[in-house]
Amino acid sequence: MFQSANIPQTVSKELLQKRLPELREELLEVQHKLRENKAFATIILLAGVDGSGKGAAISRLYEWMDTRYLFCNAYHEERSESESARPNYWRYWRDLPARGETSIVFGSWYQEPLRDAVMGKIDDAELERQLSAINRFEKMLAYENILLLKFWFTLPKAEQQERLHDIEAKGKKGRNFIEEWSGAEHYRAAQTAGEKASLQTSTGYAPWFVIPSQDPDVRDLALAETIAQSMKKKLESGNGKPVSAPAVVTTLSQANAVDAIDLSATISKEEYKEELEELQDKMAYLTDRKRFKKFGFISVFQGNDAAGKGGSIRRLTRSMDPRNYKVHPIAAPSVEEKLHPYLWRFWRRLPKKGHSAIFDRSWYERVLVERVEGFCSEADWMRAYNEINAFEKELTDSGFILCKFWLAISEEEQLRRFKAREETAYKNYKITEEDWRNRLKWNEYAIAAGDMVDRTSTRYAPWTLISSEDKRYARIQVLRTTVNALEKAMKKKDKDKEI
């Protein structure tokens, strides 16, 4: 969920000076329109690791927006006597903004369950129960005409440690908003708890926006632009119904995990032949073991058109028993499939234990092709992230090993491969008019792919992002990742048996 956290992002002074006045004008315009028609209220919820700049971001919003209609509610661990004498959510109800107003929430209803989970005061079952209660609360807010925008600020661990050290060195120990549970000491546990919360409570009507916070200008502009565009969209809808917010909006071409793939990686022909044989032998051994019958194996291939998904799949399955695996090329849904929920056709293709299923394109087409081409509504693809995460969690909890691959090539390499397909008789079937049309939307697909990875790369089903400029390199990476996943799962099973 936090794949983009470690990607350095900056903004030039020239772009900042150009964009900032425009953005401030947009924020004020939507704020004043909202104040006039009182169509809804807005809540901006800020969370994330300590040291990521939540307080600084709030200060900037106060600088950029009209403070007459903007107020901030900060909630601390210690409740007042009045708050302690009432139910937990009373103080949040007390402070809800009226229609026409905008509220910033700092230390929200997420604070207590996340802190207790990180500090070991509650188990996973209790955390899930409290997150389910949060979902019900936020759904009610959405249907009561409150636009809820939730932002999680991320930082690499090393940078967080450096920032907190600087704060202490400068004698700013009096910051009363330091949150021990999300500090450097508990970094991993806080990231894990934050991911669980994000996955379970990111909905179409109350999504989480994950914003890398290494560069304060990038962070604050991404925050402000998303707020402005979300409020504008809700004002324009005019129907009073919950409106799904967009993914993080920014004119800064903010990098995501897909953008950060190093496309220069290569492997020599000699290394390729040697490793290919070795890894395929391991695949044959692992999938023929008795232990494999305790698992099911599912592999998902997505990527740019002409990135070499088919070639990687053929090398993966070459040494597998054809009786025990099936490759599913996924195209547009049939008439029958359209009459069912979109995950139905994938449930029907799942393998049984001891067997494998390889998906050449998959359920992720809902948040890629269907999103970009407008084949489903925005509300449908926005809610799909959570539905897909829940689907994959059920698969892995049931003993299925799931490997997800995104194969990436450059726009220039794709053009070269398209032309080669047109000029080679036995490759003509691989190139269609649809491929050329999709190419015209390269940027839209790049944004959708970045959002997909950021919102669906989980601890139990992470994405593996692979450069496919060199096809041989991509094929080896796919095999190596798969072999490692199978070996890891089987070793864990053996260790659990010994215990």
From TrEMBL:
GO biological process, one term: ATP biosynthetic process
SUPFAM superfamilies: P-loop containing nucleoside triphosphate hydrolases
Gene3D superfamilies: P-loop containing nucleotide triphosphate hydrolases (3.40.50.300)
GO MF annotation, one: polyphosphate:AMP phosphotransferase activity
Domain of life of the native organism: Bacteria
Statement: the UniProt record of this protein carries the keyword Acyltransferase: no
Coiled coil stretches, renumbered: 262-289
Catalytic activity: [phosphate](n) + ATP = [phosphate](n+1) + ADP
Residue ranges of every copy of the Polyphosphate kinase-2-related domain listed in the record: 12-234, 267-493
Keywords: ATP synthesis, Coiled coil, Transferase
NCBIfam families for the chain: poly_P_AMP_trns (TIGR03708)
Record PANTHER family: POLYPHOSPHATE:AMP PHOSPHOTRANSFERASE, POLYPHOSPHATE:AMP PHOSPHOTRANSFERASE-RELATED
Official protein name in the record: Polyphosphate:AMP phosphotransferase
